[in-house]
Amino acid sequence: MALEITGSLVKKLPVQAGSSTRGEWQKQEFIIETQETYPKKVCMNVWGSDKVLELASYSEGELLKISFNLESREYNQRWYTDIRAWRIERSVREAGSDYAPSASAPGSSNGSSSLQSDLPSDLGEDDLPF
């Protein structure tokens, strides 16, 4: 399952390292915040020294596009979900991705409806017989 998310890098947590029967390993967790109307913070991780070095090249506050996989596993009758990033790239903000209404949006200036501007100015003088 490959998914994508775009958000700003909030924080990089310390690198974790260790050794196993397969050799040395490194992992680093980081927090991103989505750019939605109701932003959400997500804790993700990268595995391997090459990905840890790649994550080090990004600074906090940068807008990133992250491809990731979701994986859950059971340990002692509890389930743990891992959000593992496998591609991180800088993202540019698209013109339509801003969720704040612009000043020229209909109804955004003093709360008036855009329908009022569509009505004719001389409402009292129509040529209907009734």
In a nutshell, what does this entry contain?
By secondary structure, this protein is mainly beta. The chain has a single domain, classed as OB fold (Dihydrolipoamide Acetyltransferase, E2P), CATH 2.40.50.140.
Lay out the secondary structure.
Elements: E1 3-20, E2 23-34, E3 41-47, H1 49-56, E4 63-75, E5 78-90, H2 115-118
Antiparallel strand pairs: 1-2, 1-4, 2-3, 4-5
Overview of the molecule:
It is a single chain. The chain has 130 residues and is mainly beta. It has a single domain (3-93), classed as Nucleic acid-binding proteins (OB fold (Dihydrolipoamide Acetyltransferase, E2P)), CATH 2.40.50.140. The chain is built from two helices and five strands. The chain has helices at 49-56, 115-118, and strands at 3-20, 23-34, 41-47, 63-75, 78-90. Strands 3-2-1-4-5 form a five-stranded antiparallel sheet, covered by helices on one side. A hairpin with a 2-residue loop joins β1 and β2.
- Rg, alpha carbons: 25 Å
CATH homologous superfamily grouping: Nucleic acid-binding proteins
User: Order of strands side by side in the largest beta sheet?
Assistant: 3-2-1-4-5
The separation of the N and C termini measures 66 Å
What is the count of β-strands?
5
Level-2 CATH architecture: Beta Barrel
Number of discrete helical segments: 2
CATH topology: OB fold (Dihydrolipoamide Acetyltransferase, E2P)
Order of helices and strands: EEEHEEH
Shape: elongated
Strand fraction band? Answer: over 45%
Total domain count: 1
Helix content: under 10%
